[in-house]
Design a protein that fits this description.
The chain has helices at 33-47, 52-59, 63-75, 98-102, 106-117, 132-143, 157-161, 187-193, 219-230, 265-279, 302-320, 340-343, 355-364, and strands at residues 49-51, 79-82, 85-88, 125-128, 151-154, 169-172, 176-178, 183-185, 200-204, 207-209, 213-215, 236-239, 326-331, 334-339. By secondary structure, the chain is α/β, with parallel strands linked by helices. It has 3 domains: 19-88, Arc Repressor Mutant, subunit A, CATH 1.10.10.10; 98-263, Rossmann fold (3-Layer(aba) Sandwich); 302-364, no CATH class. The strands form 5 sheets. Strands 6-5-4-9-12 form a 5-stranded parallel β-sheet, with helices on both faces. The chain has a 3-stranded antiparallel β-sheet with strand order 1-3-2. Helix 1 (33-47) crosses helix 3 (63-75), helix 2 (52-59) packs across helix 3 and helix 5 (106-117) packs across helix 6. The two termini are 33 Å apart.
Length: 371
């Protein structure tokens, strides 16, 4: 966990333009190294990311020369090299106040919290650090009715105060209070953490870069997160809306609240992890699963398998007797053959306060209140 990160351009000034949009006559003569590096920096200021092949074509220099330029720019702290290219080094912003941060992209925070909370199993002990997105994880845990034996260890005061009726244990670390983040930190907090262990850790961060990994502008928060990671025996789940957006192409698309719609960092990481292992000659099979799948599904069990088998048997029997255009159902402890036109003749409605929907929510671990 790293916490401290260290004139007119001739390239296109319109985001989304490719190097081919720049007239070749502009680069009619070879540039000296200082000029090339300035053009590379100016290009990245506009496009955020650049490929070596594109820069080679644009600047009329060999790919080996471009690589040396990128190495020099990286040594100066200007760019970060990626697989086959480079991005601008992003300096960490000043840490925003908790209340201000909570108002930014609330829907993304809620969805991340919902997906992360679905990963917790009964009997788990988990770490949760500070931050508005991490707070959403705890809030959605509170909404689950299928958890009877879960321990939450956190330095997040806001998250702890939100647990008023949950049937699980919450351990709030002691230490110095940080009003800016409504969290606790310091020697007492880290000493207490080192006496504990967890099955999973949910870590909120302020940024993700290829060079420095997960980052936060506050050294006190970085220390807490580092110890949590060290004391976790299982998965470490990073929860952060908007993290790594500087690594992807910019978009002008906005949501209903006027916020810029974020790109999918999961797809970006999948492609770059796969490219890295391919580059070093190691076979790897990387799968990216949309986190929302873990919200709306539960693992199959032997009862599901047996029930599906019986449905299949009855479907075969229906076909052998000449019945078509029908579906197999189960009603009053009997398997039924229902004509399709009868099954779909009217819109089906589910009472959100009824027994059926309550059973679905309890089985899938989804909260009763989606607000």
């Amino acid at each position: 966990m790293s916490w401290s990160i260290p004139s007119k351009s001739i390239v296109s000034t319109q985001p989304g333009h490719s190097p081919e949009d720049v007239p070749r006559s502009i680069m009619s003569k070879a540039l000296i190294p200082a000029e090339r590096r300035r053009e590379i920096r100016d290009y990245l200021q506009v496009h955020q990311i650049a490929q070596i092949a594109s820069l080679s074509s644009l600047l009329m220099a060999s790919e080996a020369t471009i690589r040396r330029d990128l190495e020099w720019l990286e040594q100066q702290g200007i760019v970060e090299r990626t697989h086959g290219g480079a991005i601008l080094t992003q300096r960490l912003p000043t840490e925003p106040a908790y209340a201000y941060s909570a108002q930014a992209h609330p829907e993304e925070k809620r969805r991340i919290g919902l997906a992360a909370a679905a990963l917790v199993k009964d009997g788990d002990t988990i770490f949760v650090n500070s931050g508005t997105t991490a707070t959403q994880v705890v809030q959605h845990l509170v909404a689950r009715t299928d958890l009877d034996n879960v321990s939450v260890i956190t330095n997040n005061v806001t998250a702890a105060l939100g647990v008023t009726e949950a049937g699980f244990e919450v351990i709030l670390l002691g230490g110095y209070f940080r009003p800016l983040a409504t969290s606790v930190f310091g020697h007492f907090a880290t000493a207490m953490l080192r006496q504990l262990a967890a099955d999973k850790a949910f870590i909120g961060v302020d940024g993700i870069t290829l060079k420095y990994g997960c980052t936060t502008p506050a050294s006190a928060e970085a220390e807490i997160a580092q110890v949590m990671i060290e004391r976790t025996h299982g998965a470490v789940i990073v929860v952060a809306e908007g993290a790594g957006q500087d690594l992807m192409q910019k978009t002008a698309e906005r949501d209903a609240s006027g916020n810029v719609r974020f790109g999918d960092i999961g797809l970006f990481l999948r492609d770059h992890i796969t490219a890295y292992f391919r580059q070093i000659g190691m076979d790897v099979n990387v799968k990216y699963i949309d986190p929302s799948y873990s919200i709306r599904s539960v693992p199959a069990n032997p009862h599901d398998s047996a029930f599906c088998l019986l449905l299949g048997h009855n479907a075969v029997h229906a076909g052998m007797t000449g019945r078509t255009d029908m579906v197999v159902g189960f009603c009053n402890h009997e398997f039924t053959h229902v004509p399709i036109n009868l099954a779909v003749y009217a819109r089906k409605k589910v009472d959100p306060a009824g027994r059926l929907w309550s059973s679905v929510l309890a089985s899938t671990g989804q909260p009763f209140n989606m607000r």
